[in-house]
């Protein structure tokens, strides 16, 4: 492994983010290893620096929260402290913990009241790029999220350095951000009801509410995070969409992306120009720094709405002053996009021969799944050991990224070895996606749209073991 690749740092706070925060004025992290060997995560009101404006919000000390890193087979130990004025929990997005550690209030645990805490502790056998976030109302939308990387016991990929990039939409720009959580969890009126129609027929739209700012690692385009590379370096990027209401396209000007993992799970490498990420989705890509130098736009384009997010790829020795303008759009954004159909799982699920034990056909319409809205919805019942198939057909005008807790599923593609994921985007107006999973993790699990407004409006079903 190349010498500059960061050594494994164990379960320490901010390990990965330190790569990016060297050039920011961010304050110290609220998290740090405690004497008991647990990481402490404190959810609290805070201010986030958005291009020189100190905006009040809620977070885990920084936005994103500290990157949690551990190695496959280790035990995640996180002590959550709630210093918010309302209940909270932490959900481990993409991990498959025992049900009681999944962080869903009222379903898998009691909500953690203000001033209280909760200890999360479970083994993480599977490597990958994951996220953690609050799972109460719209708390995630304020900044209560962070990256979680489980490194494999032996890394097969060779690369020189790696960066985690969390893409977010920020609702209220620079004014009065503190008010928005209350407003959005209290009920979303006209904008939501209208949310299902106004786009032209061909537009890709995941949401439609007003989110004037797009952030990469908590930073607006004027204060973009900088990835550095020497000519010839190979970078690994872990790109994660944690936005509440925005799907993104992602590309690096002058460079191509070799996709190696979808939602943290390995795929046969495929080289594309751009990624499309629904909310909750992640891709790991390798980028060869094959240009002689310069500063290149890492473009983050919201689907179906205006504005830009970005990072910068800067070759060592190149002047920061040659950075492209904020709105300079990488042509690669219009190139070949990653699709599930071209992805082939390197470690497919061990599905038996024959037919699934249970199949559910679930039409997505408005914010209903299979004609029902939570809480007035029947559980989707499975039995321990079942091979379960969900087929989703989206008749609405929005693209819906559907996320299953507690399990990985395999997307059904022509190859028969589609990518293993935990979140899958179903295109609007007749789009269809089918996935299979093995019911091997008993409990009550959420299956929901990762547009958090849709989820709050009831786009959620429980998967229950009988
Ligand atoms: Cu990332 Cu139930 O969510
Ligand atoms: Cu949705």
Automatic annotation (TrEMBL):
User: Can you tell which superkingdom this protein's organism belongs to?
Assistant: Bacteria
Ligase as a keyword? no
Q: Name one Pfam family in it.
A: Cu-oxidase
GO MF, any single term? oxidoreductase activity
What keywords tag this UniProt record?
Answer: Capsid protein, Cell cycle, Cell division, Copper, Metal-binding, Oxidoreductase, Virion
Q: Where is the Plastocyanin-like domain?
A: 55-154, 162-317, 370-466
Region (Disordered) residue spans: 176-202
The record's Gene Ontology biological-process terms are: cell division
Protein name (Swiss-Prot/TrEMBL): Multicopper oxidase with three cupredoxin domains (Includes cell division protein FtsP and spore coat protein CotA)
Q: Which organism is it from?
A: Blastococcus haudaquaticus
């Amino acid at each position: 492994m190349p010498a500059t690749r960061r050594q494994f740092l164990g379960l320490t706070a901010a390990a990965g983010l330190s790569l990016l925060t060297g050039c920011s004025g961010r304050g110290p992290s609220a998290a740090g290893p405690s004497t008991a060997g647990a990481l402490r995560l404190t959810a609290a009101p805070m201010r986030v620096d958005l291009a020189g404006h100190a905006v009040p919000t809620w977070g885990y000390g920084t936005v994103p929260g500290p990157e949690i890193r551990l190695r496959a087979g280790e035990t995640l130990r996180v002590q959550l402290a709630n210093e918010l004025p309302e209940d909270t929990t932490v959900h481990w997005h993409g991990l498959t913990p025992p049900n009681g550690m999944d962080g869903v209030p009222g379903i898998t645990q009691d909500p953690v009241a203000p001033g209280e805490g909760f200890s999360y502790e479970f083994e993480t056998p599977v490597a990958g790029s994951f996220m953690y976030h609050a799972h109460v109302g719209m708390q995630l939308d304020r900044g209560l999220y962070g990256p979680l990387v489980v490194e494999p016991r032996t890394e097969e990929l060779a690369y020189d350095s790696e960066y985690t990039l969390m893409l977010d939409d920020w609702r209220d720009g620079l004014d009065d951000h503190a008010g928005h959580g209350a407003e959005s969890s209290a009920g979303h009126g006209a904008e939501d009801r209208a949310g299902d129609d106004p786009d032209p027929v061909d537009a890709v739209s995941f949401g439609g509410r007003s989110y004037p700012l797009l952030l990469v690692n908590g930073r607006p385009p004027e204060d973009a995070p900088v990835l550095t590379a020497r000519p010839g370096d190979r970078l690994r990027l872990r790109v994660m969409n944690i936005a509440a209401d925005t799907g993104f396209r992602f590309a690096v000007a002058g460079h191509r992306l070799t996709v190696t993992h979808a939602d943290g799970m390995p795929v046969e490498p495929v080289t594309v120009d751009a990624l499309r990420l629904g909310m909750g989705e992640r891709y790991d890509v390798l980028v060869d720094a094959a240009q002689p130098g310069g500063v290149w736009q890492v473009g983050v384009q919201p689907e179906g709405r205006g504005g830009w997010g970005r990072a910068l790829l800067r070759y060592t020795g190149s002047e920061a002053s040659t950075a492209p303008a904020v709105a300079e759009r990488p042509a690669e954004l219009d190139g070949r996009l990653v699709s599930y159909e071209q992805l082939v799982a390197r470690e497919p699920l061990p599905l038996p021969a024959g037919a699934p034990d249970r199949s559910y056909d679930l039409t997505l319409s408005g914010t209903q799944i299979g004609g029902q809205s939570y809480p007035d919805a029947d559980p989707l019942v499975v039995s321990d050991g079942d091979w379960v198939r969900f087929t989703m057909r989206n008749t609405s005008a929005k693209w819906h990224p559907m996320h299953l807790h507690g399990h990985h599923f395999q997307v059904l593609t022509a190859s028969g070895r589609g990518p293993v994921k935990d979140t899958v985007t179903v295109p609007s107006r007749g789009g269809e996606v089918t996935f299979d999973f093995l019911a091997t993790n008993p409990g009550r699990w959420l299956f929901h749209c990762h547009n958090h407004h849709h989820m709050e409006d009831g786009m959620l079903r429980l998967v229950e073991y009988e």
